[in-house]
Amino acid sequence: FFSPPFSPSRPSFHRSGRQMDDDDPNLRRKYSTFSLLVVGFFWVSGGCYGNEELLWAGPPAYVFLMSLVVPVVYSLPLALLSVELSAAMPCEGGLVSWVETAFGKTLGAHNTYWVICSYLVDAAIYPILAGQYIVDELQASSSTFRELRKDTGVAIFASMIVLFVLATKLLGTTWLVRFNTVLAAVSLVPILLFVGWGLKELDPSTWTVTAHPVGTDWAYIISWQIWLYSGFLGISSLAAEVDNPGRSFFIMIAVLLPLVILINVLPLMVSLAVDDNLENYEAGYFDMLGDELTQGHWLGWMFTIGAQVVMVGLYNSQSIVSERCTSHFVKARVGPAAYRKFTESSRLTRFLFRESDTGVGPIYILGAAMVTLVLVWAPYELLVECSVLIICVPAWLLCVAFVYFRVQFPHMGRPFLLPGKLPVAVLCAFLPAAATAANFYFSVTDDTPVFGVKYIKVYLTVAITMGGLLVHLLYHYHQTRWKHAEHEHEQLLGSQDQLDKKYGSSAGHGNGYGNGNGNGNGNGNGTQRRWSDRSEEQEEDDGDESMALRKKRQEEEDRQQEQQKQWQMQQWQEWQKQQLEQQQQQQQ
Description:
Elements: H1 33-44, H2 52-57, H3 60-88, H4 95-103, H5 105-141, H6 150-169, H7 173-198, H8 218-229, H9 231-234, H10 245-274, H11 285-294, H12 298-334, H13 336-343, H14 347-353, H15 362-375, H16 380-390, H17 392-408, H18 422-444, H19 456-503, H20 525-532, H21 536-587
Helix pairs in contact: 1-7, 1-10, 1-12, 3-8, 3-10, 3-18, 4-5, 4-17, 5-6, 5-12, 5-15, 5-16, 5-19, 6-15, 7-10, 7-12, 8-16, 8-18, 11-12, 12-13, 12-15, 16-19, 17-18, 19-21
């Protein structure tokens, strides 16, 4: 699991470093197919809340076109290749583990860092959107809140949501799944009522409008659409905790992808029938449209409540990715022995790093929450574009890694295999890579000022990348110093062992150069004479013997590693055989 986290010649490993065993109750997987559907709903959508901004950024014809193109060109191929990799290599970390296995520890570490940063930024968007719905409804229904600055009120309510989610997540993953099940039901009710109430008002002529009063913001439209469906990329991090990943992930895609498209498109079609003035649309406008459609306030309040619960679920789901990726990153860089030694060094560290209840150590949950509490004070439009811009490189690397495994390991066991041969796999990787490249181009060329600064999202992305390079240089520097000190320590121990064997121990055995009977002053005076009487030729001989000893020790370690590798290969073949037998039984 640790270095690299997974390879095609190894069986899958639990996050503790032990081999997966379905019969071991301590390593029981936490997500069934239904649980994955519930968590995946919030991972990839959660509802139409916040999509009003799309009609502000561009005309309906372009928005609806991109709402159909992006899922087919970007989300579906990424989801399918993630299913194949999840079924073949179900390991903690998902996409970060696969990229590290394909490209090595250095590039894998930077990829993990980019994924962590992207999902930390992404997770902060949902509390902000929830706060915006609360403030809009309060200011519309009460004069007391109209004097409150909107951005300040949004940040305060968003911080309260983050603290609430932090408390609930520390109760454990099982409780989280039950919580998300309730959220899924509650969040869909106002959407279904809004669409059902407005079906009779639909006006198809508003769907084909290509003109917009303030122009088309392609960078924002593409970024928002990719952001809407990017959850299929991150949910692979749960591969090691899902029962039968190939089957469960495929069912999730078949159910959620068409459902998500309908949830994103139908409410916007109904909205245009209620209000065709595109300049009025902003996040939180669905509650106003609900009031106007029903000639009352009850549906608007239901939208507000639905937005709160769904944003809580989305924040839960997206922060899981950053927390698990951070956990994987730390374990892989520190090493299993050092990590275990540190986490068990005191009662406090055992509490902060225990994984039995939450799936990751509470320290990672607390760290992600602290970062989110800072980011909620930024405009969510900026966070959306930065999140999608940062995830471009990990998406490219995942596509290349998928093709790499197909080419280099064509006979690797794949419980789920994309139909067609290598050309289909290459096409499946090319389409999302091209969509990501288009988004990257429009993002870096967009000069819309934020806080009075043009290209600010590009500057922020470069700053985050430079931060990762700085962390890498510091880690490499300290690792080099540690290895050098360890090498000198081993040399010193080897030389001392050779001296003890050649001249004997002078403490209590009488074979030193002491003046007593062997148990008198041999430990003091004899030791000094032993060191002082040695000639240069003897020192050279000792050095040669020490080198030979180290060489022999290295050969022994290499032999043990080769035996371990052979054992792992046997275990992997047995595991593949069991998987094939289970598939045959299921087919029968």
